[in-house]
Amino acid sequence: MLPLSPSSLLLSVGSIGFQVQLPDEGWRAALAPLYREFPLHGDPEWRVTVQDAPDLDPAAARWIGHEGSITRFRTAQYAGWIDLARGQALTQCRELASAPAALESALAYICMQSLPRTRQSLLLHAAGIRWRGLGLVVSGPAGAGKTTVARLAQGHGELFNDEMVMVDLAGPQPQLLSTPFVGPTTPPELARRSNRRTPASALLLLAHAPTFELLPLSPAEATLELLRTNLAAVERTASAAAWLAAVERLAQVLPIYRLRFRPTVELWEFLAGALNLLAVEAPCAS
Amino acid sequence: MLQRPIHTSNVASRVYGADAVIISPDEGMVRMLNPTATRIWQLADGSRSVEEIAAALTEEYEVERDQAQQAVAILLGELTEKGLIAWIDA
What pTM value is reported for the model? Predict the structure, then answer.
């Protein structure tokens, strides 16, 4: 175990261990409570440095580029690089308030690239909900209704995360795992940084519609749909190959549906009937 | 010299049933091929010439040899232009 400085955090996300070096103990005191449910017990694989950089250009356009094993990124709030070969990353942010977004952006990118290659897992842009003992992965492009369904889940199920979840495909039963990643568009009342895990039961790809409908998707259709919201996972050829293999495994072990829905709580009544029915019919609902 | 088509090293692909999904990170493009194109993509693995791919198609589909050869040549030509197929010496 490496000696830990008083301004460091040790985190475990998706079983990937991170040592996060912060500018000082004040930053650590501010950030540590956010991630207290994701402690690392063991040696980190990754060293991520967060730097205070008040001079970052606030008008900078969002940008990402790759050269060899290094990915560089920049937004109006933070900028940095990730070296996938060396297991190191640096992210600079203009102020402490933007540090969670800066850190989580780097960690999410690392998970997205590494999990399919090293853990038979996927990080997906999706909400995760435990409902009636079922682990639902709810995905779709911006505006498709992830946040709407997350809101509708209140009082009906437990929201794991509104923005990003992991699906662990290593065992015979896929597992839905929460993450500490809160997205820029996540409403405060839906922000979650809780560490939860439950067997995954279905992946629902959302579309707004005047009525409710649940349609099984072929693996190819599901792959294309997931690519619409997870392009960052396939920006490198080696990562793309591993991601496609993981999605193929996902489609083998988890029923994937197109869910057309209208934003009312009748959704849960509809799903109760439709999932029970389709669970019998779906060939991959093992 | 006779050449054989092969997937370029800068693409990742997967065949799900009869449909291939091809990701080209350099272009930032994702493509899905129809079942016939998927079969040609599968056969273009560097071990067969255009003629041999066309011959395989005539055994699997109700199609004349000339017609199959033309379809294979057109598709592989398009995929070559897009940087998805390279050619190696037989």
Answer: 0.89
